[in-house]
Specification:
By secondary structure, the chain is α+β, with helices and mostly antiparallel strands. Among the domains are: about 20-70, no CATH class; about 205-390, no CATH class; about 420-610, no CATH class. Helix content is about 40%, strand content about 20%. The chain is built from 14 helices and 19 strands.
Amino acid sequence: MSPLSFQPWPQEKPQSPDIIQVLQRVQIERGQLFRNVTEASLQEEIATDGDLSPEQSLSEDEEKEDDDNDKEFGKQSKDGPPVSREDLQRAKFDMIHQVGIAHNEIMMAVDFVSLLESEHANHAQQTMSVALKGAVPSKALGTDIWEHMPVDEARLAQDRLLARNVKMRSLQQSADDLLGAAKRLEDNVRKETQFWDQMLSISSKGWSICRLPQTKGLGVRYGFSESSAEFSRRDIAALNSNEDGSVSLDRGFGTKPTGLKVTVSRNGQVVGKSSLPSTSDDSETTLEARIRHARDSIFDEELFREMTRESRTMASLGVVVRGQTITIPAASSEDPDSTEIHIELAPLDNEAEFHHGSANLDDITAQAIALGARLILSQAHRDKLAKRSEIPEPMAERSEEKPVMSILKPLASFLLHKSSLKAVNSYIAKATSVLSLAGIAATASRAVFELPEKNQITNTTDLVSMLKSTMISTGCLKLKTLSNTVDINIQIESSLAQTYNMNSNFTLTAPGDPTLRLDTIEDAAQSADAAIASALAAALASRAGGGWVQDEREALLVLDEEGMDEMKSVWVALDSQKGRLVLGSLQKDLVWGEGRDPPEVGLWDGWSKMI
């Protein structure tokens, strides 16, 4: 017979089972007609379930009775092994209490070590408890190593000076001994001394002197640690001794110093050039100048290589590569002046061709482009060094692809913004000139580069971030009408981060009209002309009165009265590109500008002649 099965507590109050269900269950477990259910069978089943015989069960109940009686009369067990269930439970609770105390102390130690290590390793936060994270921020506890005694800089400097003096004295003594021993070694000693003097000279200037791989000669490292692999392997040159004892720099066969050359051409004519460094510099020795030019050359080679890679992704923006020259359009596609920027690598032997007596604005632009490109690549090296200094990510199955550096896009954005500034300022000047012919008081605020304050740029990182951000400038045309002042603002936004053409975005803001976002300067000029004409028509409507109503969609005044055969209308039209302002009707027109003699009256007084 199997015992009755246990079931979980019901969620609701159980109902009393029907007597039929109880009888069916008993019949299944005990057999039909209860023939097998006897007092002896039930007593045997109870004893079997508890692994005790009926006699043992009875003796256990008697011991329990005795324990209860002892507890009732205050009798306690003596020290030693537990003799009752209460002693066993008491020992169990004591052991659990001690284990809990030990566990708490261990967890506190783990939290302390994790909080201490979170300053140096981010994965240490994973072992911090939730309570510690909520109470104390990570990296709040730091460590430092203190030396027992402070460093005496004066003593160290004196030791270095003494060591250097001792070394030089030893070299000189050795030379004197060799000169005294044999006259024939005098020339060799002079050559050796001259060689090491030049080596010490370049070492004192910060250049790293090292031994050439797989040879016994010496070389100098002049490259950059964060350059690409193909350039980092070329950052060392041999230092060879000549017959006269001087040192020459050997970069390899066919390697000559080059520099980045930027030229500005307009309508096919070169109008601006950047300057190249001169190889003859009196402030440096010949060897130091060669090392410096080798360093600048490998930097410009890497810069040109990265710009060539980027130019392949900018074909839609008009950037092309012809031979060894990268060509960037310096103006929008609607600009009549075809201004282009050409970037190439030029040998430093021909630098005399690119030096000028006086620099013009285009020369300054070319030099600024070359300097900006070098700043962006230097910032990319610093970012790469900072990323390499971080804790590496888990190893992946595939290596990451080298991303294309963004060097040409910020430069192209700068050139595009400069061209857009010129176009907006030209429009504002033309509109102001036409309005002044009609006797309308208008003042213009030219759009200029909004440079940040000096305290906002503290290092080259801030400067490069500003160069890569969206460039925004605003030009304003303020009209003084008969009743109020109207401001027409044109905002320029230049950024090639998410655009696919060489055009800036123009935002036109005029009172009473919704803000318009336009793609070309022609659309911006037409919308601004319409906004100015609408403002002038509104001023004329307030002066006319007598039933004259302005059409909300355009600069049109309409008079429609009862008894009139036909409706009168007067409109205002402004075309800044042609330099013309028209106040017209079906019978007569007054035109200011466009090479004509202006009317004798202005716009406000000309209204009386139109009606």
